[in-house]
Design goal:
Blueprint (H helix, E strand, L loop, with lengths): L18 H4 L2 H8 L28 E3 H4 L4 H17 L2 E5 L5 H16 L2 H4 L11 E5 L13 E8 L11 H26 L6 H6 L6 E8 L11 E4 L5 E6 L5 E5 L2 E4 L7 E5 L1 H6 L9 E3 L7 E8 L6 E2 L16 E2 H13 L4 H5 L3
Parallel strand pairs: 1-2
Antiparallel strand pairs: 2-10, 3-4, 4-5, 5-12, 6-11, 7-10, 7-12, 8-9, 8-11, 13-14
Helix pairs in contact: 4-7, 5-7
The chain binds 2-oxoglutaric acid (AKG).
Organism: Acacia crassicarpa (northern wattle)
Keywords: Iron, Metal-binding, Oxidoreductase, Vitamin C
Pfam family, one: 2OG-FeII_Oxy
């Protein structure tokens, strides 16, 4: 049996517990009830930032059925909207993507079942570093961070080789189906994005080796937090791949940084939230910006999010696409994606953006 998390009297000073003592914030939150949170989870020290809620409804929406339309004008309009969304926002919602509501619900239900397994049963998936195919853990980077984050996660490498936990029963099968369908949507978006940059539709796929590229399947669980004004689910960060496609349960919490303001993302029913990630910023020579985002908390509901990170092939050298730098200066260095991935994990520990290190000017 797992030993229960430490519980302390609500009148005493909150302890400074390390994430490794806690192991699972869900188990801790279940046992902790409404007691104050450990001070090591205080990441909001100067009060919550103002949120520019009037901008939330301006987050672009891309109708995937128009992007895949045989009608040339409808397709061209969708490509142009996609380019504008990537250039001006770096985040957009995709509707009519063709992934059934049933499959999305099944993935969400199984993901919840996974996090509900007893702590002991998930120990075999314990996080053994960024290259481990299956990693279950808590917070953001518990080994190096100064403050901790109120989330548990499962991170699985699902492409080009498919890995997945063998429990709960049925999770692996629906996750396989979902991972392949997401990959296909990401591929079509990348084709549209290529066209929006004035390239051939297959250009970005070929340049990045996308058909043998990396996919990381993440399942985040953010338990209700008794002091959501003090802690975060995830700190501000950008993602390392090309495109992240995220689906969440009905509970809000994702915020994006747009023109230096935080904005709540309020997804349309059944849509995918897509964000531009670091490698797309590099290949587009900075035309499309990797968006800074974070997860905030609430004190009532468990939030779940399932982002799938879709990146280049690990052995590909990634820099600006040559056609885009025929008439302009390259703004980023070229490095192998595998090295970027590795450095990015270390830089996160030092709280630095690796993209800044790739910038040439
Ligand atoms: O939960 C969310 O909405 C954001 C997840 C995220 O940014 C991540 O897992 O890297």
């Amino acid at each position: 049996m797992a030993s229960p998390p430490t519980i302390y009297a609500s009148s005493s000073k909150p302890p400074k517990l390390h994430a490794s003592d806690i192991g699972s914030i869900k188990a801790f939150a279940d046992a902790n009830g409404l007691s104050p949170i450990p001070s090591s989870y205080y990441s909001i020290v100067e009060g919550r930032d103002d949120v520019a809620d009037h901008l939330a409804s301006s987050i672009p929406v891309i109708d995937f059925s128009l992007l895949t339309s045989d009608h040339p004008q409808l397709h061209a309009n969708a490509v142009s909207q996609l380019g504008k969304a990537c250039a001006e926002w770096g985040i957009f919602m995709v509707t009519n993507h063709g992934i059934s509501e049933k499959l999305m619900e099944e993935v969400m239900n199984k993901a919840h079942e996974f996090h509900n397994l007893p702590v002991e049963e998930k120990k075999e998936f314990g996080d053994k570093g960024p290259w481990a195919p299956i990693r279950h853990g808590t917070s953001f980077l518990p080994q190096g961070e100064k403050v901790h984050y109120w989330r548990d996660h499962l991170k699985v490498l699902t492409f080009p080789q498919f890995n997945f936990p063998h429990k709960p029963p049925g999770f692996k099968e629906v996750a396989y189906d979902y991972s392949r369908k997401i990959r296909a949507v990401a591929r079509t978006l990348l084709q549209g994005i290529s066209e929006s940059l004035g390239l051939e539709s297959k250009a970005l796929m070929e340049f990045t080796g996308f058909d043998s590229g990396l996919q990381v399947f993440i399942v985040n669980l953010y338990p209700p937090c008794p002091q959501p004004e003090l802690a975060l689910g995830l700190p501000p960060h950008t993602d390392q791949g090309l495109l992240t496609l995220l689906y969440q349960n009905g509970i809000g919490g994702l915020q994006v940084n747009h023109d230096d303001k935080w904005i709540n993302v309020n997804p349309l029913p059944n849509c995918l939230i897509v964000n531009v990630a670091d490698q797309l910023e590099v290949v587009s020579n900075g035309k499309y910006k990797s968006i800074l985002h974070r997860a905030i908390l609430n004190n009532k509901h468990t939030r779940m999010s399932i982002p799938l990170l879709n990146g280049p092939k690990l052995e590909k050298e990634i820099g600006p696409v040559p056609e885009l730098v025929e008439k302009e200066e390259p703004l980023y260095k070229t490095i192998k994606y595998r090295d970027y991935f590795q450095v990015q994990q270390q830089a996160r520990l030092a709280n630095k953006s690796v993209l800044d290190e790739l910038r040439l000017n």
